[in-house]
Amino acid sequence: MNKQNAVYASKDVNEIMVVDDQPGIRMLLQEVFKQTDYQIVTAANGEQALELLKKEDVRLVLLDMKIPKMNGLEILHKIKEIKPGIKVIIMTAYGENAMVQEALQSGAVAHFTKPFDLHELISAVEKECPKNSSGV
């Protein structure tokens, strides 16, 4: 069994959730991380994200901060209530410093402004959620 199949077959799955209302971003990140030992689940809004978080073994969340109905800060706070130790990397197209600072103070581990450098994002994910390490 090759390394990739061993990771998927094990209980210590390196699962990442992408929460973004833009289908193109969700598809892009899904394709990028398909090449790695990470499995991706996606959510288009906060409600979907919180439901998936309760069902899936998610270790890291890539969270867009501007989503209709429930903003990124609300989602971040609820994520941290459900799984306090989970890592969250925020993404925004707006560069709103106050929101970014509040998110970082609320437990986000990193921030990326769209359009982001994919190599830098992958490096941040690998740093915060090392492959094959135990879950939250």
From TrEMBL:
Residues 15-129 form the Response regulatory domain. The keyword tRNA-binding does not apply. PANTHER family: RESPONSE REGULATORY DOMAIN-CONTAINING PROTEIN (PTHR44591:SF3), STRESS RESPONSE REGULATOR PROTEIN 1 (PTHR44591). It comes from the Bacteria. This is Response regulator. Pfam families: Response_reg. Keywords: Phosphoprotein. InterPro entries: Bact_response_regulator (IPR050595), CheY-like_superfamily (IPR011006), Sig_transdc_resp-reg_receiver (IPR001789). The modification 4-aspartylphosphate is found at D64. The keyword Phosphoprotein applies.
